[in-house]
From TrEMBL:
Name the record gives this protein: Glucose-6-phosphate isomerase
Gene name tied to this protein: pgi
The protein's annotated pathway: Carbohydrate degradation; glycolysis; D-glyceraldehyde 3-phosphate and glycerone phosphate from D-glucose: step 2/4; Carbohydrate biosynthesis; gluconeogenesis
CDD domains, per database record: SIS_PGI_1, SIS_PGI_2
Keywords: Cytoplasm, Gluconeogenesis, Glycolysis, Isomerase
Length: 448
């Protein structure tokens, strides 16, 4: 039995009994494309076996580097964007205290973990430098291509700061580079400077890389257990191999979101009831959006954080245009619970909740919302996770990764490329005056 549970029971008004079964032939074909490498993008499927095939020597080096960072740094600055950022951010948030970065140092036993290079905001960098102050820090710069503009700029800035603070030799001991094994400017620089380096495997694309050094070093540095994380993913790797739709819940999710998409539910909201899970959706949005949004089709991935957004987006979800479907990630057993206190009087009218705890209220909110949104015409699927341990997160990551690989093939696209991302980059380089882009620069400037 799978460690996490996919609940499709509330889809009844939207999907007829026979429809899932009718998808079996297509799912079997998609499974063959994915597993046998006959589909488009087959060079980027190594994440499929990564939870078991990962480089054990490098894994030990990651743990040692994490320990060193914990021993000599009050802050770890993780520099990266897209797949070189979102997985680590998602996992650090998911696995740690809600206020991890705000805790006093003795209650954290790990450095604060901040992310940079995920925008070109000067204010953000300025304020982060200000926050670090004169405290000890290290940098983990992450880029598969080694040439992405945003992290390159941030790395220059924080490297400069390290060199000024610790000298060339001291800075070198505090820079960890995670990049391609051979290509890219970051690799060239890491070799030349002698930074400790970790490799993003060739066959693992950015948005599928959280279980490589890309995610593992920041996650381990935050104090979370990466052995358990990998074990959860490895068990999920075993759990989701059967192409039989009655047996494989990740494949059910893939098939059902495509059934719904073809009926006009073109936006999927990933939802949670736990603020620490906000970045799970951000990671999932890149995984799904970059994998599936191409050839002028694909489900638009969006998200909502409940119950917060029930008081803002809730109106639209309940009664707006009927193009939404929702997938809730629900934690069955929260890490902690807080009782609703007993009050002498009942001026706030909450007497009926006395003796109950917040977990119970959250659960009832979830149940009430599922029924209300279903009644309002929003198909609802739920992924129930038992807890928020590293094991469960590893399992959940693999659930979504394999589901989206299958889902992409079901919709007839290459789930493993992202050609559309280049258009803005080319324009930006031309407008910035990068050598080689002069002609386009002139054309674009004339249009502005
Ligand atoms: O890791 P990097 O090569 O720096 O890439 C970071 C990100 O930026 C790109 O533009 C891609 O669209 C993403 O798939 C990638 O994750």
């Amino acid at each position: 039995m799978a460690h996490i549970a996919f609940d499709l029971s509330k889809l009844e008004p939207f999907v007829h009994d026979n429809e899932l079964g009718e998808m079996q032939a297509m799912v079997t074909a998609a499974d063959a494309e994915l597993r046998q490498g006959t589909g488009a993008g087959s060079d980027f499927r190594d994440w499929l076996t990564l939870p078991k095939d990962y480089d054990k020597e490098e894994f030990a080096r990651i743990k040692a580097a994490a320990k060193k960072i914990q021993s000599d740094s009050a802050v770890l600055v993780v520099i990266g964007i897209g797949g070189s950022y979102l997985g680590a951010k998602m996992a650090v948030d998911f696995l740690n205290d809600t206020f991890f970065n705000y805790l006093p140092a003795d209650k954290r036993n790990a450095p604060q973990v901040f992310f940079a290079g995920n925008s070109v905001s000067a204010d953000y960098v300025h304020d982060l430098i200000n926050l670090i102050g004169d405290r000890d820090f290290s940098v983990n710069v992450i880029s598969k291509s080694g040439t992405t503009t945003e992290p390159s700029i941030a790395f220059r800035i924080f490297k400069d700061m390290l060199v000024k603070k610790y000298g060339e030799a001291g800075a070198k001991e505090r820079i960890y580079a995670t990049t391609d094994k051979a290509r890219g400017a970051l690799k060239t620089e890491a070799n030349a400077a002698g930074y400790e380096s970790f490799i993003i495997p060739d066959g693992v694309g950015g948005r599928y890389s959280v279980l490589s050094a890309v995610g593992l070093l920041p996650i381990a540095a935050s104090g979370a257990n990466i052995d358990e994380l990998m074990q959860g993913a490895a068990d999920a790797q075993d759990a989701y191999t059967n192409p039989d739709l009655t047996k494989n819940e990740a494949y059910q999710y893939a098939a059902l979101r495509n059934i719904l998409y073809r009926k006009g539910y073109t936006t999927e909201l990933l939802e949670n009831y736990e603020p620490r899970l906000q970045y799970l959706a951000e990671w999932w949005k890149q995984l799904t959006g970059e994998s599936e949004g191409k050839d002028q089709k694909g489900i638009y991935p969006s998200s909502a954080n409940f119950s917060t957004d029930l008081h803002s987006l809730g109106q639209y979800i309940q009664e707006g245009q009927r193009t939404l479907m929702e997938t809730v990630v629900m934690i069955d057993k929260p890490r902690t619970d807080v009782d609703v206190p007993t009050a002498k009087d009942d001026l706030d009218g909450l007497g009926y909740l006395q003796g109950k705890n917040m977990g119970f209220v959250n659960q009832k909110a979830f149940e009430g919302v599922v029924l209300a949104h279903t009644d309002g015409g929003v198909p609802n699927m739920s992924v129930h996770i038992p807890d928020t341990t590293p094991y469960t997160l590893g399992y959940l990551i693999y659930f979504f990764e394999v589901a989206i690989g299958i889902s992409g093939y079901l919709n007839g696209i290459n789930p493993f490329n992202q050609p559309g991302v280049e258009a803005y980059k080319t324009n930006m380089f031309a407008l910035l005056g990068k050598p080689g882009f002069e002609k386009l620069g002139k054309e674009l400037n004339a249009r502005l």
